[in-house]
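sry for the spam today, last one i promise. struct tokens for design, 392 residues
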């Protein structure tokens, strides 16, 4: 694959007037923008290829959303430094924690379909395991609402490390109890629900179990049938380990030095929290599904009233059901980042204006590159993050 030099500083000058996705991608690849838009420490005029080399990121794929559509998608570098296989728009990356909002959509569909309530006591939904000590200290009960917004009172803060391919994988109850072969501690309540925000992969894993207990089907099947397939996310799967038929499509994990990290990737049985394999293009379809539904343009998974739960902060912390929701400049944005062993990624979408972006990398050092690209996309497309209040 021929690598196109994409100046990181170009992104402030190339879309003065609406152009096609192909034209804007080409403009970003060939123009250099003013120094005033560069992040501190970024060399002036640095191309994307140079930035990837400096940060030791072998491969990256980007999808840009504009006017409720994928405006363009493009990939740079390699999926695997050892084979030199190119990164393409069909290369699969681990979505890491971006798995959480996609999984949350399935739980909201279960609520919408009447399988359980969003505010229902989680122990009345769970069948194969129970959350001990709930309610904590005489407080409110733990519910899908609090689990998916990280306000349930669980104190783990996981961060799942994953498992080597071929290693024994724990069941979800074993993970929640901290029993071997699980490589993390138990998930336990440490405070009453809705008293504080504390990011918790364990909480999302409890909700994964509640969903499968309520529906009676494997989690990858539920997510494929209810979310991925209806939205058209054909290059996405929650199957762990990744099926052999898809492995040729997958990027390999790389460390901060840009080198392969031993095994090609880690395996994550904590599917809702970290188990999605996907592409930026597929995640962009997911973002657009959220945006279209909120805009009353028709939804393929949720009704508008249900979708609003994903982008409405619960009142403690920045999360709705699945997404971080923030006011940035003059706009409200839903977003989520992801960090697995050897993978870094980021998703952002405007709540009402139909634009956003997804960036995915195959390196532990990819975080710095994600925000370089998104910051400059904001300027190119003149997102309202940059708008000043209208004078009174």
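last one done:
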């Amino acid at each position: 694959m021929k690598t196109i030099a994409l100046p990181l500083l170009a992104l402030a000058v190339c879309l003065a007037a609406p152009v096609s996705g192909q034209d804007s991608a080409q403009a970003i690849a060939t123009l250099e923008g003013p120094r005033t838009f560069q992040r501190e420490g970024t060399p002036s005029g640095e191309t994307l290829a140079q930035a990837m080399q400096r940060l030791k990121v072998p491969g990256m794929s980007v999808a840009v959303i504009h006017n409720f559509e994928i405006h363009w998608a493009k990939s740079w570098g390699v999926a695997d430094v050892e084979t030199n296989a190119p990164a393409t728009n069909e290369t699969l990356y681990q979505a890491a924690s971006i798995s959480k909002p996609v999984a949350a959509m399935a739980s909201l569909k279960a609520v919408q379909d009447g399988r359980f309530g969003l505010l229902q006591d989680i122990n009345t939904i769970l069948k194969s395991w129970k959350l001990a000590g709930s309610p904590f200290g005489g407080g409110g009960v733990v519910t899908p609402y609090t689990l998916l917004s990280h306000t349930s009172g669980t104190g783990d803060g996981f961060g799942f490390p994953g498992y080597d391919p071929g290693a024994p994988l724990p069941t979800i109850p074993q993970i929640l109890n901290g029993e071997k072969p699980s490589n993390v501690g138990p998930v336990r309540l440490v405070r009453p629900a809705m008293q504080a925000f504390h990011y918790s992969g364990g909480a999302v894993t409890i909700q994964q179990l509640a969903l499968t207990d309520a529906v009676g089907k494997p989690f990858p099947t539920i997510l494929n049938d209810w979310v991925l397939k209806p939205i058209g996310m054909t290059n996405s799967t929650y199957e762990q380990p990744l099926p052999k038929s898809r492995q040729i499509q997958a990027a390999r994990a790389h460390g901060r030095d840009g080198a392969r990290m031993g095994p090609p990737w880690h395996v994550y049985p904590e599917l809702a929290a970290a188990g999605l394999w996907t592409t930026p293009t597929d995640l962009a379809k997911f973002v657009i599904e959220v945006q279209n539904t909120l805009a009353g343009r028709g939804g393929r998974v949720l009704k508008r009233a249900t979708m609003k739960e994903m982008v409405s902060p619960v009142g403690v912390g920045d999360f709705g059901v699945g997404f971080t929701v923030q006011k940035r400049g003059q706009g409200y944005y839903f977003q989520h980042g992801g960090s697995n062993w050897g993978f870094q990624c980021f998703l952002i979408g405007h709540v009402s204006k139909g634009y956003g972006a997804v960036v995915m990398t195959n390196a532990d050092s990819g975080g710095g590159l994600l925000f370089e690209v998104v910051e400059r996309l904001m300027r190119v497309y003149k997102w309202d993050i940059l708008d000043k209040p209208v004078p009174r």
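The two ends are 53 Å apart (CA to CA). ok im logging off now
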